[in-house]
TrEMBL record:
One GO cellular component term: cytosol
Organism from which the protein derives: Natrinema halophilum
Protein known as: DNA polymerase beta
Keyword Aminoacyl-tRNA synthetase in record: no
Location in the cell: Cytoplasm
Amino acid sequence: MTTNAELAARFEEFADLLEADDVEYKPRAYRRAAENVRAHPSPIADRVEAGDREAVENIDGVGDAISSKIVEYVETGEIEELEELRAELPIDMADLTRIEGVGPKTAGKLYRELGVQTLDDLEAAAEAGEVQEVKGFGPKTEANILDNLEFARTVGQRHLVGEARPLADDVLAFLESIDAVERCEVAGSIRRWRETIGDVDVLTSTTENEAVIETFVAWDSVDDVIESGPEKASVRVGEIRVDLRVVVPEEFGSALQYFTGSKDHNVSLRNYAIDRGMKLNEYGAFDVSEIDDPDAGQRVGERVAGETEEGMYDALGLPWMPPELREDRGEIAAAETGDLPNLVTRADIRGDLHTHTEWSDGNNTISEMVDAATKRGYEYYGIADHAEGPGVVGGMGLSGEEILEQVSDIREVGDDADIEVFAGIEANVDAEGEIDLSDEVIDALDVIVASPHSALDQDAGTATGRLVRAVENPAIDVLGHPSGRLLNQRSGLDYDITAVGRAAAEHDTALEVNSDPRRLDLWGSAVQAALEEGAKIAIDTDAHQPSTLEYVRWGVHTARRGWAEPDDVINAWDETRIREFLH
Ligand code: DGT
Ligand code: CA
Ligand code: CA
Ligand code: ZN
């Protein structure tokens, strides 16, 4: 069956190709549809198959034209118009756009002018000095492309958790529908909620291996069977590889523990076990204290655990630990002393402080966004559109006067709303760490998020000084997406998180975990380092439309990877406490 993620990927590709073809407006509509399709809570293909065309049209941002394409794709596996565009522009778009400064538009131009289709073509053209001859390019762009090629090649292999996890959820739902499957669970990096995923690992227990594997490789969504054997199968769904392992019920827990990883966590845990006369592997936990040669086989010694994952940790005298913590960053020692964190959950989140509206580059009105936040059960909600400044795309940012106008609009909406609405702004942290807002504007606002959008290639020393300066600024409440990275596209600022975290703690500025799956910035290890310095974090979505308020899912798990507890997260606090912090 066609998944929502697959449909979304098609519309994103559509948008890229239309942009490459210099078509205006339409790409944005397709991107918006893609976001909403991806975030849709149930399989859209089911509605199509039930003939419920209206339900499809009623999805936000979909409408008549796009719903026809959804129906076409679900029914035929193709969208004719997309096939035509693909033939017209045979470009490796995902590869090329990974180069900083190369978007779909540029890729289209490079194809038309120089016939560039792949990274190799681009490298050859840049090395031959052909790129700088194209109108709108120059020697600097050409040098930049050459500098970025290696990064683009190495990061190319990993997928965003925001794309891989919805697919993993679909895989789980499919496996759960197979009668012979007793238990199933994701494992690997996806269960640890890493920001990027190499492949999706899934594990099932059954007594009927063959039936399960046969059914799995025959799943409608599978595009390619990479390998298939008695205990495992690997398939490709879209761009993503899915590894299924099938085990007997008695070994489900040990296999789940083993295949969840991380490798470093497993190595440390295994050593911890050896020190206690235990042997740990994917088949179980074994007491080998009485055994002369514990390495003689996989299943030597007395088997003490394996059916459940809890049992595996319990066999070592340790509590079970959330997969997000399993990165070998101190979790085993913390478990031993009973100091594992009580991680923040989605239910703890009471509001969002960094969201956009059509006042800048968002898609919806203030009240539409506030309604969506209210429906989510939030207690408070902050609008933070872009202020004008360096790095903000032409005309999208608000001037001081426009901010004051927007504040009064936000107040009006707030007066009628059932939740507290904060008037905020996303200011720009310039290359020196300053923001450009007048005192009058600062006084009118409830929350100031300040983010770096320009000069993202500074050296680490300069970048650290810049971000420290920003968090020391008493006007700034939240440092937004501190590094400015875009996963698979640009690495962003390299800076000393410990120094920034320490300054943030001292000056009561929260550091943002931007939940947009393309950012996830701060990321797990940075959250952990900042919290160790006593800093607070804010888990914000940076939503540009109601459906992407759901990005909070990625932000919460990223914060959990950084050991965050509810008390560390300012938007898990009640309104009184957060207002005091923001003041
Ligand atoms: P990925 O797919 O690159 O995002 O990362 P993972 O962590 O999902 O890695 P993957 O798919 O290669 O393997 C899944 C898990 O299996 C991994 O997290 C830990 C376990 N594993 C795989 N190979 C080894 C190994 O050689 N030693 C140990 N201890 N564990 C391994
Ligand atoms: Ca994996
Ligand atoms: Ca794997
Ligand atoms: Zn931003």
